[in-house]
Amino acid sequence: MQPAKEETKASDGSLLGDPGHTPLSKKEGVKWQRPRLSRQALMRCCLIKWILSSTAPQGSDSSDSELELSTVRHQPEGLDQLQAQTKFTKKELQSLYRGFKNECPTGLVDEDTFKLIYSQFFPQGDATTYAHFLFNAFDADGNGAIHFEDFVVGLSILLRGTVHEKLKWAFNLYDINKDGYITKEEMLAIMKSIYDMMGRHTYPILREDAPAEHVERFFQKMDRNKDGVVTIEEFLETCQKDENIMSSMQLFENVI
């Protein structure tokens, strides 16, 4: 496989910024709207690895994929509509769909599957709680199952969305009870679940109290009116203006 080109790498965004930790104010001419990522870049995402690991290296033609789409249970709404909804190409959607169908013949992913995926990719820690929170963020209607459409729409935001889109998704992840606000307890629960999953193999080595310290620092900055909760407006404004927060939250880059 050819190494990823430098210009591709430059637009390969993590959840809240870029892997190089370049402050947004210092970026010149980087387009976030429709960056094209190589397969190599995509394969850094655990969910993409899980899906594509089950697909055969040789691709099928579009007619085969369209046939699959028309016959599978819980079938997606169609490649063209999904391509319009996401920032994946038709060929990428075909590969993702084949893998999704191989791994989930019913056309649905449940929470136990998410826990299995993340326990495999993070064997050094305990991924159970983080997988639970991440699953709920993908499961928009809260019915305990994720359809292929919801799965790829979420992945599209996380891998190729604008900074604003990724921040809105992150807010939804932190808002555990989905009441439209983030409490300090919710933020700590998410942060702690990430540290628990990463185990002792993070670099630099993290102290036991690191999650609480990070949350305290973030929350003091985000809760602008000091009412004990963070709104979506406070979250977006603070994150986009504070380069330290944007850089610190890069931990998400390694855990999607």
UniProtKB/TrEMBL annotation:
Its main location: membrane. Transmembrane segments: none annotated. GO terms for cellular component: nucleus; voltage-gated potassium channel complex. Residues 126-161, 162-197, 210-245 form the EF-hand domain. One of its GO terms (biological process) is regulation of potassium ion transmembrane transport. PROSITE patterns: EF_HAND_1, EF_HAND_2. It is found in: Cell membrane. Keywords: Calcium, Cell membrane, Ion channel, Ion transport, Membrane, Metal-binding, Potassium, Potassium channel, Potassium transport, Repeat, Transport, Voltage-gated channel. It holds the Pfam family EF-hand_8. Residues 1-32 are annotated as: Disordered. One of its GO terms (molecular function) is potassium channel activity. The keyword Disulfide bond does not apply. Gene3D superfamilies: EF-hand. Residues 1-10 have a biased composition (Basic and acidic residues). Belongs to the recoverin family. This is Potassium voltage-gated channel interacting protein 3. It comes from Saimiri boliviensis boliviensis (Bolivian squirrel monkey). The lineage of its organism: Eukaryota, Metazoa, Chordata, Craniata, Vertebrata.
